[in-house]
C-alpha cells in the first residue's frame, strides 16, 4: 500500500487528488495538511467527499510515515516549502505547482506520454500545467518526428476551476456565466514549459508558438485548437499520431469531432487530427483538474511505484 501525504489540501486540485486517492485500491492517505483548515473534516471543504472519508485536515505531519508527498500549494510555494523542510530520501515528491517544471533540483517533468521511462525511475516529479498538457499532447508526435517547422497557432478555452478556488473578479458566477473572454494573450506562463520541452524534443524548432487562452463559462475542462503547416498527407499524419500514442492508455486519437463532455471527470485526452490544405489542425480536449492536474499526478504516482498506469483512474465520462 502506498502511503500518501498532501501539503496544501484546500484547493480544487487537492480536492480532486483526495477523491482519487480515497478510492485508489493501492493507496491510503496518511495526512492532508492545511493550516487554515486544521481540525476541520475534509468534507467540510470538499463537499463531494461527504460519506467517503471522515479524515480531518492537520497542521502537523510526519514525513517519515509516508511513501509519496503531493505538493498542492500555490505556484512559488513548493520551492519555499522544500527549502524549509527535510524530506526523507526515500519519499517521492510530486509537485503540482510550476516551481520545478524546468527540471531543476532533480525533478523530472511528469508528462507520461513523453517521459514515461524517466518517470518510472525518478524521485521527484514536476506535474505539467493544464494548458501545457493539452497543447503538448497535440504537438508531441510532430516534434518527435522532426516535423515542427513553422509557427504554431493555439486558441484554447478553460473552465473556471483553472483559476483556483479563491474567488476573483473574473471567476465569480455572475461574471463568468454566459460570458467568454481572452486573457494573457501571447504571454501565458505555460508557454515557457511548452516551448522548452518541444525544443528539447526537436532542437531545430525555432518558430513562435502563438497562444491565446480564453475563459469559458463552464467549471472544468480545456478545449485547445492547434494548427501549423505540415507537409504530411492526412493518412500519414493519422498513422504518425496513432503510432506515437499506441502505448498511452489515456490519450486517444480520433477522426471524429471531440468535445468536453467526452473527457470531463476522466483522465482521458482526446485528439482529433485533420489536414486542411497545407495546415494540420489538432483539437485537444482534457479535464483540467484530472489529466491537467490531479489525475496526471496519480498517473505519475502509479508509474513511480510500478503499478498499472491506469490504477485508480478508470473513470468514465457522463453519457449526457
Automatic annotation (TrEMBL):
Instruction: Alphabetically list the UniProt keywords.
Output: Amino-acid biosynthesis, Arginine biosynthesis, Cytoplasm, NADP, Oxidoreductase
Q: Which PROSITE patterns match?
A: ARGC
Cellular component GO terms, alphabetically? cytoplasm
The record's active-site residues are: 130
Q: Which GO terms describe its biological process?
A: L-arginine biosynthetic process
Q: Which SMART domains match?
A: Semialdhyde_dh
Q: Which residues form the signal peptide?
A: none
Q: Which reaction does it catalyse?
A: N-acetyl-L-glutamate 5-semialdehyde + phosphate + NADP(+) = N-acetyl-L-glutamyl 5-phosphate + NADPH + H(+)
In which pathway is this protein known to take part? Amino-acid biosynthesis; L-arginine biosynthesis; N(2)-acetyl-L-ornithine from L-glutamate: step 3/4
**Database matches in Gene3D superfamilies:** Dihydrodipicolinate Reductase, domain 2, NAD(P)-binding Rossmann-like Domain
Q: What is its main location?
A: cytoplasm
Domain Semialdehyde dehydrogenase NAD-binding, first and last residues per copy? 3-122
Q: Which residues cross the membrane?
A: none
Pfam families noted in UniProt:
Semialdhyde_dh (PF01118), Semialdhyde_dhC_1 (PF22698)
NADP recorded as keyword: yes
Listed GO molecular functions? Answer: N-acetyl-gamma-glutamyl-phosphate reductase activity; NAD binding; NADP+ binding
What EC number(s) would the UniProt record show? 1.2.1.38
Q: Quote the subcellular location field of this record.
A: Cytoplasm
Q: Which NCBIfam families match?
A: argC
Q: Which family does it belong to?
A: Belongs to the NAGSA dehydrogenase family. Type 1 subfamily.
What is the name listed in the Swiss-Prot or TrEMBL entry for this protein? Answer: N-acetyl-gamma-glutamyl-phosphate reductase
- This chain's source organism reads Alistipes dispar
Amino acid at each position: 500500500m502506498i502511503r500518501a501525504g498532501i501539503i496544501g489540501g484546500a484547493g480544487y486540485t487537492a480536492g480532486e487528488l483526495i477523491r482519487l486517492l480515497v478510492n485508489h485500491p493501492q493507496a491510503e492517505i496518511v495526512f492532508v495538511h492545511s493550516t487554515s483548515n486544521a481540525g476541520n473534516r475534509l468534507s467540510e471543504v470538499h463537499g463531494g467527499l461527504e460519506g467517503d472519508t471522515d479524515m480531518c485536515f492537520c497542521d502537523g505531519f510526519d514525513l517519515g510515515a509516508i511513501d509519496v508527498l503531493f505538493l498542492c500549494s500555490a505556484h512559488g510555494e513548493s520551492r519555499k516549502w522544500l527549502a524549509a523542510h527535510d524530506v526523507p530520501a526515500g519519499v517521492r515528491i510530486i509537485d503540482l505547482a510550476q516551481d520545478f517544471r524546468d527540471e531543476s533540483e532533480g525533478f523530472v517533468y511528469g508528462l507520461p506520454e513523453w517521459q514515461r521511462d524517466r518517470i518510472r525511475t525518478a524521485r521527484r516529479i514536476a506535474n505539467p500545467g493544464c494548458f501545457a498538457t493539452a497543447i503538448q499532447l497535440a504537438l508531441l508526435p510532430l516534434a518527435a518526428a522532426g516535423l515542427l517547422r513553422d509557427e504554431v497557432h493555439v486558441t484554447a478555452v478553460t473552465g473556471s476551476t483553472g483559476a483556483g478556488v479563491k474567488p476573483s473578479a473574473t471567476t465569480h458566477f455572475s461574471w463568468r456565466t454566459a460570458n467568454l473572454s481572452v486573457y494573457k494573450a501571447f504571454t501565458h506562463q505555460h508557454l515557457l514549459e511548452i516551448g522548452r520541452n518541444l525544443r528539447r524534443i526537436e532542437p531545430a524548432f525555432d518558430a513562435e508558438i502563438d497562444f491565446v487562452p480564453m475563459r469559458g463559462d463552464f467549471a472544468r475542462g480545456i478545449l485547445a485548437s492547434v494548427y501549423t503547416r505540415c507537409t504530411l498527407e492526412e493518412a500519414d499524419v493519422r498513422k504518425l499520431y496513432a503510432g506515437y500514442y499506441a502505448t498511452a492508455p489515456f490519450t486517444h486519437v480520433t477522426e471524429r469531432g471531440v468535445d468536453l463532455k467526452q473527457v470531463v471527470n476522466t483522465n482521458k485526452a482526446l485528439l482529433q487530427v485533420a489536414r486542411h490544405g497545407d495546415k494540420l489542425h489538432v483539437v485537444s480536449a482534457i479535464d483540467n483538474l484530472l489529466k491537467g492536474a490531479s489525475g496526471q499526478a496519480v498517473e505519475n504516482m502509479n508509474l513511480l511505484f510500478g503499478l498499472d498506469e491506469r490504477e485508480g483512474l478508470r473513470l468514465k465520462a457522463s453519457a449526457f
